[in-house]
From TrEMBL:
Protein name: Nitroreductase domain-containing protein
Nitroreductase domain span: 164-217
Record-level Gene Ontology MF annotations: oxidoreductase activity
Organism: Companilactobacillus suantsaicola
Pfam family, any one: Nitroreductase
InterPro entries named in the record: Nitroreductase (IPR029479), Nitroreductase-like (IPR000415)
Keywords: Oxidoreductase
Assigned protein family: Belongs to the nitroreductase family.
Amino acid sequence: MSIKKEMKKILPSVIVKEIKKMNKRRFLYKNYLNDLNGYSKYSGMWERSDEKQIKAKLIFYSHAIEKGLSHPNFRVRFGKRALNNLFHYLSKYNELNYNLNSMEYLNAISVLKAYDDKHKNLNVPMPKFHKKFDRFKYDSAPDVAGSDVLYLNKKNMSFSELIFERHSVREFDDSNVDLSKVKNSVEMAIRTPSVCNRQPWKVYLTNDSKRIKKLLELQGGFKGYTIPPVLSLVTVDLSSFISVTERNEPFVDGGMFVMSFLYALTDNGLASCTLNTMRPVPVLDEIKSIMGISSSEVLISFIAIGNYKKEYRVAKSHRKNINDIMITD
């Protein structure tokens, strides 16, 4: 007979239960410690010279500039901090002799070229910008970044057309949103798969402009844009999960639901933009308080929702090559 079985016979059941709890807690700590160490070691939290980290920062700061280029109320010489960081990491990337034909590098150069072209068209001189930019060879940079002007298209789309049609839209028509279309989109998103079909999602909706304004101030990533007509917030309830090995599942299930919701909104003729909830704990608690969200729920993503304008501008957001994504035998 094993020692474990002998212990169960000897010890009172209440102590056996407490030992099981202690073992589960220890297993939980061990796994979260592994997550902590992995994130600390491999993420871009610290200033390192790792190629993958520099590429991630090139994309991050390039996207910040692209958003500004797509803004309807364009502000000349915007993005000083993002530009300085982008030049810093481009220089570092060059100094370390990394691949100058990578998507991340060429996209960054293309974003800067689009920024330059925009100011040239407005006859705005930028000597400080050129002092930094002219160090890079950009004449042959592909035209993959900047912004595009799109037009409202109400045709019925196949799924593949829908995927390419959907963009993050930050400026909406000022007409009222048909909430039945939003409801229909949620019903479609409910078809999203989840671990053991637990369906742990909730979608909080508000069209109260004062509440939306306050929530977006807390979110921090929608500055300079008009308040959207509708704001939704997708959450996942931790009570739906039962083991330590499922500790990351809320964000997997939540992320899949958000993507389904976005496609469904597009299919229902509504424009949308995801807005992350990566904020400090006190800010997240304030958001929960405003929306009446339980402490057992984690925030996955805000989604700004509205009707399309007849003409609207979006960031190009160039995508990686499939060979950088798909790995085969």
